[in-house]
Amino acid sequence: MTLDKDIIYLKHVLECIATIETYVAGGAKIFFDNVMIKDATLRQLQTMAESTMRISQAVKEKLPAVDWKKLAAFRHILVHDYLGDIDPELVWAHIEHRPPELNRQ
Q1: Residue 54: C-alpha distances to residues 71, 87, 96 (Å)
Q2: Of 23, 66, 78, 84, which sits most exposed with the smallest number of CB within 10 A?
Q3: Count of the separate structural domains present in the chain
Q4: What distance in Å separates the CA atoms of residue 61 and residue 12, rounded to the nearest whole number?
Q5: What whole-number distance in Å separates Cα of residue 18 and Cα of residue 97?
């Protein structure tokens, strides 16, 4: 993969983080009470995690503080457990911790 594609995916991750932050700016209550906000946030998390899976190994090695395997596992949960098995509390914990962590990296 070229560095250009890595840059595109890294920018996409940052855009998803910014969008998620906008969606849940009202805090946990809006996430838990508004189905559209929850659905839109889950979609952003899914596409963000998908982009992280497409970043080259060389770039990932330069950012060892990011837990790339956890992001991939989280993406699999979002994609494959969509029939109601997704724990909203787990997702909220992810929203509070993972995107800011990625943003810092």
Answers
A1: 12, 25, 23
A2: 84
A3: 1
A4: 19
A5: 14
10 Å CB burial of residue 94 (0-12, 13-18, 19+) is buried
Hey, what are 22's tokens? 């906008």
pLDDT (tens digit per residue) in 51-103: 999 999 999 999 888 888 888 888 888 887 766 677 888 888 878 876 656 66
How far is CA 24 from its chain centroid?
Answer: 13
Tell me the residue type at 91: V
Q: What pTM was estimated for this model as a whole?
A: 0.82
- What is the extent of the structural domain holding 12? 3-104
**Alpha-carbon gap, residue 25 to 12, rounded angstroms:** 20
